[in-house]
Design a protein that fits this description.
The protein has 339 residues and is of the alpha/beta class. It has 11 helices and 12 strands.
């Protein structure tokens, strides 16, 4: 049985059932979630007898760094991580001037099938467990020091792994444990509207980013299969609800693909959709993959789109691409490794 996915109440019950004092659970919980320890042998504030009991009854997930890629143009590092069942996921570390950020995976592969995204190309295998999600974060902290921000935008659709993600986030933000601020967490979705409502109804007022990428449903349906289930109007209603419940401004991710989604009509429609809403449009240059015929977005193209949107009264910024020389876009390294 894994131990790092237990909240304090669950852990207290388990420890009492082992015949130990209830307060021992707090010691263990603190070692796991404050000190990022994943070995009972290292819990030297516990007796040898208790450590032996823990070793006999519980375990930690083993995640190995299969390969590390370090960018030569910035401080970005990308990791191929191998899970116990030999499946592979990716994580990224980005060291900005004022903060350390990691981007983690939520699934092995992805069901969403977005044509421009590398994460989905080898299909869907399974969800990451709560234990694996926690260990993914603490492993990167053991390597890089304390993290300020976590983005769940790596391989997979986080809201398709909803229950595990919610427990994972509750553990990370627990004041008795890691105590990470809700404001420090961003979750990205391709637009699972039913789960956006569910997320809004939790106490996790985290940041939400929606992968929109197209201003019109007919375009979105061609490249993002989820659009066959949820329309752009559905997404806007769900994100309006999220803003109302959490008071968190929603970001809309928009990969700019020249001559496909940056036309005058696209800009006009985006203006109609968002002109009077408190939202942020995050323009992203396309990192091309072999299966998608469009080329990397040129700087002048994305600059022009930002200029037009800002001129129309929208809050649009350009995401600075980090780790461009190490294929730091979601799924690219995993795909290359599996070939």
């Amino acid at each position: 049985m894994y131990i790092n996915d237990k909240n304090l109440n669950e852990l207290e019950e388990l420890i009492v059932n082992l015949g130990e004092k209830k307060f021992r659970a707090k010691q263990i919980y603190r070692q796991i979630h404050k000190n990022a320890i994943n070995s009972f042998e290292q819990m030297t504030d516990l007796s040898l007898k208790l450590r032996k009991k823990l070793i006999d009854n519980f375990k930690f997930p083993k995640i190995n760094v299969l390969k590390t890629y370090s960018s030569k143009v910035d401080s970005t590092k990308k990791y191929l991580l191998q899970l116990e069942d030999k499946n592979i996921v990716e994580a990224v570390f980005m060291n900005y001037d004022d903060r350390k950020t990691i981007c983690i995976s939520s699934q092995i592969g992805c069901k969403m099938g977005c044509k421009f995204c590398a994460s989905t190309k080898n299909g869907f295998v399974r969800n990451l467990t709560v234990s694996e999600l926690i260990e993914q974060v603490y492993l990167l902290e053991r390597i890089n020091g304390n993290i300020n921000n976590i983005v769940i935008m790596g391989i997979g659709e986080p809201l398709d792994n909803f229950d595990n993600i919610i427990k994972f986030l509750n553990l990370l933000t627990d004041k008795k444990g890691r105590n990470l601020s809700h404001r420090s967490i961003t979750i990205s979705t391709s637009g699972l509207c039913n789960r956006i409502y569910d997320l809004a109804d939790t106490d996790l007022d985290i940041k939400l980013a929606v992968s929109l990428h197209y201003a019109f449903d007919y375009k979105r349906r061609q490249y993002m299969p989820i659009a066959n289930k949820f329309s752009i109007d559905d997404i806007i209603k769900a994100t309006d609800y999220y803003f109302k419940k959490t008071n968190r401004r929603v970001s809309f991710e928009y990969v700019v693909i020249d001559e496909l989604n940056n036309t005058k009509d696209d800009i006009k429609e985006l203006t109609r959709l968002f002109k009077h809403k408190n939202v942020h449009i995050n323009l992203i240059p396309l990192n091309p993959i072999e299966e998608f015929k469009y080329e990397k977005t040129k700087n002048n193209v994305i600059d022009k789109m930002q200029e037009n949107l800002n001129k129309n009264g929208l809050n649009a910024t350009i995401r600075h691409s980090m780790g461009i020389d190490i294929d730091a876009s979601c799924g690219q390294l995993r795909n290359n490794y599996m070939r």
